[in-house]
Specification:
Elements: E1 6-12, H1 19-33, E2 37-43, H2 50-55, E3 60-65, H3 71-81, E4 86-89, H4 101-110, E5 115-119, H5 127-143, E6 156-159, H6 176-182, E7 187-191, H7 206-225, H8 229-256, H9 267-297, E8 306-312
Parallel strand pairs: 1-2, 1-4, 2-3, 5-7
Antiparallel strand pairs: 3-8, 4-6, 5-6
Helix pairs in contact: 5-7, 8-9
Length: 313
């Protein structure tokens, strides 16, 4: 198992009508590649017969989560269970075409990349889903600019070394290229085939969209200030202290040289408020800096629990 060429990882949640056909497509692709492989399906707490269908397939490795922890946690569990040199990920709804996996690997090797992300240039989704994705892409480009047109596409191929020491959380599966680019890995993309959903219902909703945007800000902060939060919070604190200092000088000038009654203005209150708020921001920056150093020195606990790993051979 340590010499596997490819691990294909598929998180699934309530996809009983899609997993058998998708599995067969993946198996055909892996057999054509003709190198050692494994197919990993992560059952993310499905309430339908998805797990029963998966258990009827072979060869397959099934990572069965105790509850529905979300796509990012399921993908992280699958990645940690994988043994391949290359890791391919795709959605479990059948919209990602497994036939593109070999092409993604070819591009990765040809361009000497660490990650190749699929680009659903001609998406077969509803108008609202495509519109929300474009809005998210607009924000993402201005915050983190990972150079990827379609970071939300789950169809990607990675070198396994990309995930050493990396734990995914929240809706971070959408921003894996950005996280890896921050760590210095070489990122590329390729246009891939995207198919309409034939069975089941989409799991995407407005709540996931909001969570994705919030996680985007988390990635932005991680990119710019993760190992130096004092630069952000301390800088804001110093700025507030300077502004309060100058407003204090203005208040003194108005009182002494203009004879103005300061009870009619808010300058003194603003000066004191700005000064103490600036001090608080500076102290918070110091504390955040200490926490950041502790984070890098300790192991981060996973946000999910694996119930069992079923390895049908």
């Amino acid at each position: 198992m340590d010499n596997l060429y490819l691990s294909v990882i598929v998180p699934v949640y309530n996809e009983e009508g899609a997993v058998a056909v998708l599995y067969q497509e993946i198996l055909n692709v892996c057999q054509k590649i003709d190198k050692p492989f494994e197919i990993i399906f992560v059952n993310d707490g499905s309430s339908d017969k998805t797990l029963d269908v998966l258990k009827s397939l072979s060869p397959i490795k099934i990572v069965n989560l105790r509850a529905n922890f979300g796509q990012t946690a399921a993908m992280d569990a699958g990645i940690k269970a994988a043994s391949g040199f290359y890791l391919a990920t795709l959605d479990g709804d059948g919209q990602n075409d497994p036939a593109e996996i070999s092409k993604l690997i070819e591009k990765l090797e040809m361009d000497d990349l660490d990650v190749v992300s699929g680009w659903r240039k001609n998406r077969k989704d509803t108008f609202m889903k495509k519109f929300s994705s474009k809005c998210a892409a607009f924000i993402r480009k201005r915050l983190i600019n990972d150079g990827i047109h379609d970071s939300g596409c789950s169809l990607k191929v990675y070198k396994s070394e990309c995930f050493k020491g990396v734990t995914l959380y929240g809706e971070m599966h959408r921003f894996i290229p950005a996280v890896l680019k921050i760590k210095g890995f070489k990122i590329g993309e390729m246009v891939v085939n995207h198919r309409p959903r034939k069975t089941g219902r989409t799991k995407y909703n407005w709540k996931r969209g909001i969570k994705g945007v919030l996680d985007m800000f988390s990635v932005w902060f991680w990119k710019k200030y993760a190992n130096r939060p004092l630069h952000l919070f301390g800088g804001m604190g110093v700025l507030l202290i300077l502004l309060s200092f100058f407003s204090g000088i203005l208040a003194v000038y108005q009182k002494i040289f203009s004879g103005q009654d300061l009870s009619d203005t808010a300058l003194t209150e603003l000066s004191m408020f700005g000064f103490f708020t600036g001090i608080m921001f500076f102290i918070f920056g110091l504390l955040a800096d200490i926490l950041s150093k502790n984070y890098y020195a300790t192991h981060k606990e996973e946000a999910y629990s694996v119930k069992e790993v079923i390895d049908n051979k």
